[in-house]
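Hi Y.,

Following your request, here is the sequence exactly as I used it, all 228 residues.
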Amino acid sequence: MRVVIAEDNVLLASGLKLLLAARGCQVVAVVGDGEAFLLAVAEHRPDIAIVDVRLPPSFRDEGIHAALRARREHGALPILVLSQYVEREYAGELLADGRGGIGYLLKDRIGRVAEFVDALRRVAAGGTAMDPEVVAQLFARRADDPLAALTARERESLALMAQGHDNATIAERMRISDNAVHKHIGNVFAKLGLAPDDSGHRRVRAVLAYLDGTPRPPEQAPVREKPR
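Below is the corresponding structure, written out as tokens. Let me know if you'd prefer a different format.
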């Protein structure tokens, strides 16, 4: 797996490069700003890119803008975004184009190496990987939200599904059967009014879009850019 890293923190970038190399990944470029990132992607055509949300020169949202542009120009390039804090708007912006290959993780998650590498591979394969803290904040909704209709087990299933886990992993983590997971997820889709035949990253994006207040089919969701 060929990787481009856009991270201005030299120590973190070096650590990521060593971590990935030790697990059979080839880091083809490490850059420190959005423009250099776009040039590296165009040159190396990586399998996935790891991008910090905040890059020079303003350290605001250059990383997100660069990631969205790279996906527009290079066929939905898989992107794993790293952030110091949970920023719901950025998570929603990444998911809004309705395509797979998106991850949003807090930088603290890198220390959990097995989880981080698993998320990276899942995103590279076209799946979705959302940090549990991001999912938790998306769940923090008003009292009259439809989520109130879900049972505790259905909410737990939804949280794991939103993080990008498949049914087998959900069953393992919840210590229940595959059939029970299928039933819980079916109930979730029914209660939230979502299509029951969505699967994989498509169902994750549909659920996250609904939780973030934009319950529309992923295929119709436009790419939104913030004014500079």
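The first helix runs from residue 10 to 21.

Thanks again,
Q.
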